[in-house]
Amino acid sequence: MFSPEAFMAGIISNWPIWTVSAVLVLAAVIDGIQLKVPNWITLPMIAMGWIYTALAYQLDGSQWWVGLGWSLMGTAVGLALLLPAYSIGGMGAGDVKLLAGVGAWIHMTDTFYAFAVSAIVGGLIALGMVAYKHSWHRHTGQFFGILHEITTIKNPETLATIAAERKSRMFLLPYGIPIAIGTIGYFSWMGMFL
Fold first, then answer.
1. Total-model pTM
2. Sequence ranges of the domains in the chain
3. CA dihedral over 183, 188, 191, 194, signed as positive or negative
4. pLDDT digit string, tens, across residues 10-26
5. d(CA 125, CA 128)
6. How far apart are CA 146 and CA 160, in angstroms?
7. pLDDT of residue 144
8. Rounded to 5 degrees, what angle do the CA atoms 13, 43, 57 make?
9. What b/e readout covers 85-109, taking b as 16+ CB neighbours within 10 angstroms?
């Protein structure tokens, strides 16, 4: 049975998860409209994650630098997971910084799992977009062409240049949307909201 008091207590005790989720929704909406996640969302999200974690550890009786260390490692994991795709022109820097912001708040393991769910969601959305456009043949050819480029060229700068030239011909997926859906879905699945 739903209890408003228990619901509010859950929000208060899990406010960091609610905060991250609200920022993710805002980022997804902006990315969906502008095809860009702006720095005014991602950079404060990262910095506030570092500050929150350091203070939370200090208040729990640990050293603040231990909390900051965990937060920095989560940020590094978020960056590392999407940086390869960014380096070859497969996504924008804002998407990478958004996942780094998630890592600053929820640390390494949960960031990895949120990324994994986001990747599945992104794949499903991409398939839905291709199905909607009835362009299986075109996108299958693009997919195998890109895969061939990655395996043969191997130079990130050259791959990024090729990706930039191809961008105007592609049906783009604002990846902030899968990050938001996947991360919030992961939070929900793990019972992190209440």
1. 0.89
2. 4-135+171-189
3. positive
4. 788 899 999 999 999 99
5. 5
6. 11
7. 84
8. 40
9. ebebbbbbebbbbbbbbbbbbbbbe
Distance of alpha carbon 56 from alpha carbon 96, whole angstroms: 25
**C-alpha to C-alpha distance for 137 and 65, rounded to whole angstroms:** 53
**Residue that the structure tokens 């609610």 belong to:** 18
What phi and psi, each to the nearest 5 degrees, are found at residue 53?
-65, -40
Q: How many residues does the chain have?
A: 194
Query: How would you class 178 by CB atoms within 10 Å of its CB: exposed for 0-12, middle for 13-18, buried for 19 or more?
Result: buried
pLDDT at 168 over 80: no
SS (H, E, C) 4-67: HHHHHHHHHHCHHHHHHHHHHHHHHHHHHHHCCCCHHHHHHHHHHHHHHHHHHHHHCCCCHHHH
Residues 79-90: what's their mean pLDDT?
92
What are φ and ψ of residue 127, in 5° steps?
A: -60, -40
